[in-house]
Amino acid sequence: MKKLIKRIFIVLFALAVIGAVFGKDSGGSTSSRSQSTVKESAAKEEKTPEPVKTAEPEKTPEPKDDVPKEYRNALKKAQSYSDMMYMSETGIYEQLTSEYGEGFSAEAAQYAIDNLDADYKKNALKKAESYSSLMNMSKESIRDQLTSEYGEKFTAEEAQYAVDNLDADYNYNALQKAKSYQDTMSMSKSAIYDQLVSSYGEKFTAEEAQYAVDHLDD
Predict the structure, then answer these.
(1) What stretches of 136-188 show up as alpha helix (H) in DSSP?
(2) pTM given for the model
């Protein structure tokens, strides 16, 4: 009987030891799972920061058109004088301010000149073409007319550009002038020649004048 009790006691003791061992492993596993769950929960609770919206830069308001109407009108007039009449800068300014012209103020006229889109060399060339084709002028007469304060008032540089790029037949121009003197003034060939080459007359070259008198009777 005593042996039986002793065996039962040994079995119970063994069972107790085994239970303690497995209970420890189970508790550790549970603790580990619990810690993992807490970490996952904490990670879920952490919110992803939303991107910060930067304020859009304020648009600079477009400047209002505060140019006086008189100034704008002067500019329109100046543009038409350049585009249609091929005038020089000085010629346009004086026309704008003249009491016999447009009568604009000096300030309005200067604004127009400063803001005018014009190619004065091209304008000088256009004027030179008209003097050659309509008035049969010599090269030097055209240059003088372009720069004269009583004429077109282009700069010397603009006038030089014009005569350098002008497609003109000065022999033909001299002949037309010679015929005009012969028909309207009944001048002799010698007098016509002198008039053609004179610095106070037509200012053709000697060769151009000689061509003209040689072909008067053609």
Answers:
(1) 139-147, 156-165, 170-185
(2) 0.69
HSE value, Cβ hemisphere, 13 Å, CA-based, for 46: 5
Q: Residue 110: which of 81, 71, 79 has the closest Cα?
A: 71
Domain 169-218 belongs to what topology? Arc Repressor Mutant, subunit A (1.10.10)
pLDDT at 22: 47
Question: CB count, 10 Å around CB of 154?
Answer: 29
Beta strands in 28-78 (DSSP E): none
CATH top-level class of 67-118: mainly alpha
The CA R_g of the chain, rounded to the nearest whole Å, is 52
Strands (E), the chain: none
CA atoms within 13 A on the CB side of 204: 29
Instruction: Give the pLDDT confidence score for residue 43 in this predicted structure.
Output: 47
Query: Would you kindly state where each structural domain of the chain is located, as residue ranges?
Result: 67-118, 119-168, 169-218
Task: Give residue 53's pLDDT.
Answer: 55
Task: Give pLDDT < 50 ranges for the chain.
Answer: 4, 17, 21-26, 28-32, 34, 38, 41-43, 60-64
Task: Return the CATH class of domain 119-168.
Answer: mainly alpha
How far is the CA of 148 from the CAs of 9, 14, 134, in angstroms?
142, 134, 19
